[in-house]
Amino acid sequence: MKRAACLLIVSLAVLAQSPCPQDTQPAWTQQFGGYFKDLASTSRSYFTQGAWGDNLDRLRLTYDAKYSDWFALHVDYDNEIHEGNLIGLPDFATVRDRQNAAWLDLLHGFVNEPNAYWDTSLYRGYVSFRSNSAAFTVGRQRIGWGTAHFFSPMDMFNPISPLQVESDERQGVDAMLGEFRSSGGLRWNALYAPQNGFRRSTSAVRLSRTIHNYDFDVVAARFGQDWTTGLDFAGQAKGAGVRGELTFRWRHPTPGVVNISTRDALRLVIGSDYAFANGLYVVGEYFYNQGQPDLSPSHSFDPTVLLQFSNEIFTLHRHFLSAGASYPLTPLWKLETYVVGDVAGESAVFLPRLSHSLSANTDLNFGAQLFASSQTGEFHGLSDLAYIEFVFHFR
After folding, report:
1. Dist. CA 253–CA 337, nearest whole Å
2. Secondary structure of the chain: what % helix, strand, coil (to 5)?
3. Half-sphere exposure (CA, 13 Å, Cβ side) for 312?
4. What's this model's pTM, rounded to 2 decimal places?
């Protein structure tokens, strides 16, 4: 598999050097791009309570190719280096396990020392075939179902945690996805994501339709032996955005497979947002989660499970209120502040972020995660975190 990834990179380099036809609108087009990111962060270990620091340097190379309107190829390949004492802690392994949880093993580590780590991996890699009424995509891709801002139950394949510092990083799924349009405005998707054996694989169907100014989706999915159904909507009401999601999961314990929970789970999100003329943006959501993990009295819940790659959202408690706002202080400075609150556990995390646009393709961001929690709260045991992020995009 690693040899196949290397051959793919070499092939792309050869294609990049091949001359394009001299037509005014060539059938074959291609483009290279990507970004460089430096992310420095510091906090305390959940497991040892010792202070840690980490500096991440990531070079992401992007290649896009297109032939006419029916074929497209997209590749994102990452080269990452970590420096700091976080590497030797269990917290670091938790994050790496999430990032390396895809079906195909396309991550290759070169250095794994107590204070230095280096690997390369495929972030995205897929080909698409399109016609006027259908599209077929195969490879590592983002399946971005769902509409919620904080917790999204309909984002079944790679839900993101509000605690993830790089909120724009969405781990892909190795899958085959078909998209079809029929008369009457009905759209439907069919997906299959293989795992180690058919009984552990994922398959799903989604039907979508727009009625007036509202988009509606209905989903049925099988994750191994578990079944999930859900629906969502998103639209406008008197200038405000409104959205909602509802899912239910029926569980079927599989012999030899360790499940974090064996309970059926209902999950619900309802929310709204509004953008004012002066640039102020506000958002609020309520999240109900019936999916609590089954734990023996001798095993406490590890909140870092929220960071792991999973097709479910597990929380200690059921009721969460989340809200936030963003405002452009100047054309170059933007302030964002969000809060996620656990109502029953008297626990909350505050997520301030200050962004500065250094140039058209360069950004500097300052952020933090500030926790306040009772001993029974969702975020008990998690320490405050601060980070500085520099990003340079190139094309």
Report:
1. 41
2. 10, 55, 35
3. 29
4. 0.84
Residues 6+ apart with CB under 8 A from 358: 364
What torsion do the CA atoms of 68, 174, 230, 181 make, to the nearest 10 degrees? 20
E strands within 68-115? 71-83, 107-113
The enclosing domain of 380 has a CATH number of 2.40.160.10
> Residue 286 falls within a domain, yes or no?
yes
Which range of residues forms the domain containing residue 386?
Answer: 2-7+32-394
Q: Is position 15 within any domain?
A: no
How confident is the model at residue 306, as a pLDDT? Answer: 46
Q: What are phi and psi of 315, to 5 degrees?
A: -140, 160
Find the helix or strand (DSSP H, E) in which 17 lies.
helix 2-17
Q: What does the alpha-carbon distance between residue 324 and residue 335 come to, in Å, rounded to a whole number?
A: 11
**Paired tokens of 321:** 């209120």
Angle at CA of residue 361, ends 127 and 117, nearest 5°:
70
Place of tokens 């306040």: 372
Count: domains in the chain: 1
Strands 71-83 and 116-130: antiparallel
| Cα–Cα distance, 370 to 352 (Å, whole number) | 8
- φ/ψ of 253, rounded to 5, equals -55, 130
For residue 209, the tally of other CB atoms under 10 A from its CB is 14
Residue 14 domain-assigned (yes or no): no
pLDDT tens for each residue of 127-144: 999 998 999 999 999 998
Tens of pLDDT along 208-217?
A: 999 988 999 9
